[in-house]
Design goal:
CATH class of the largest domain: Alpha Beta
Helix content: 40-55%
Low-confidence stretches: 5-18
Shape: globular
CATH architecture of the largest domain: Alpha-Beta Complex
Mean pLDDT: 95
Strand content: 5-15%
Number of domains: 2
CATH topology of the largest domain: Creatine Amidinohydrolase
Amino acid sequence: MRTALLLLVVAIVSCLAVAQDIPLFTNDFPPEEFAQRRARIYDAIGPNAIAVMQGAPSPQGYVRFRQYNEFYYVCGVEVPHAYILLNGQQKRATIFLPHRNPGRERSEGKLLSAEDVDLVKQLTGVEDVAPTDLLAEHLVRYARSSGIKTLYTPFAPPEGFATSRDLAMRYNADIASDPFDGSTSREGHFIALLKERFPMFEVKDLSPALDELRLIKSPRELALIRKATRLGGLALIEGMRSTQPGIMEYELDAMAKYVYYRNGAQGEAYYSLIASGPNSLIGHYNAGRRMMKDGDWLLFDFSPDVGYYMSDVTRVWPVNGTFTPEQRELYNFYLACYKAILKAIRPNVTAQVIKQGVVAEMEQILAKTKFSKQLYTDAATRFVANYKRGAESPNTTMGHWTGMATHDVGQYWGPLKPGMVFTIEPSLVVREENINIRLEDLIIVTETGSENASAFIPMEIEEIEKVMKEEGMVQKYPRDSGK
């Protein structure tokens, strides 16, 4: 009887899903992969603890819902106001979902709800499903258990749309600094409620355990990162084609977003850093309001969000499409140093060891290079000196981790391991001439070396100039004249 009922429920819901023609659960990962992640969390918290995680709330305004990275990572459920309870003692997961809202489903489409118990279990692989309003009762039951003394929950702010932890923390700090606001962060409020309502638990931070898990990417995660890198590179190449004096920075932003969304991205990994002329000196310039001029350099740094996984790639080129002799000498020096970094990356050694080896090669490149301007000699000398200074620290990194966030989580300074993903982006700056030469590639550490997932994006001068001679999308579809 129960089997027949389950089949009936699945059939009915499947009909609804077909009618709206969207999946109710991710196709990027099977339930088994989420179960493996949860198993590692059980090991991290131990048998005398539970963990509870809060999913993202409904978005404000006409915005598509996007789950928090951390919540998606452990279960893949994309429903607003969901919670998950992880039992380290029994090694069971319970998803808590809001009750069905028929009116909203008629208006916006079906979501998984507390009434879809058997379907949720089948799709996600979790052991139990309950309504959100019963979460407190479940926690009380564990509080009465003599064996459960500790409750884990993430203390770090969650990562939402186009959000890395560094900016999430800045967001909280800005609100706290506003004397007419000062509201508590959502995660801070949740932690306070847990401590207030369940004082018998010792509440501990789950974030370090989650961060450690996310450092090593699985094959399916790497596939999504490669796709994000591919789309980021295609947009960047189209940006080369479309660049010419008189183009607005925002036009390249629009062009890149078309490439992303046309190819299935769910959003941008971060706001576009499309910076011409003096704007390239501003590290995260994102206004996009300047018209590009002949003689400018253009820095293009932009990537998409593909299935909750990001990339981060950057190139620079002259707006007019041709490197001058002076631009060539500075760019070629930088490129030689950059290639030295790329070829040195390998597993089982620390970033410090790699960078110390690179410094010696950079110094040789600098000694052999003759610049036409003392200004350039000074800038190149500073560039090598800064890289050497960074290599002196045992806590130095090759760049920044990349994964579910553009600036991905993880405090780690040990030997590089296969499955780690990061970008490198050293910067050579000549402020007097508004020059910031900065390339950035997506690096995956392998068993025997490294994979540059963005190597297909032109970085040689001849390749860049060749692409820039081709007709671009912006030229094919000019802006509205207003008539």
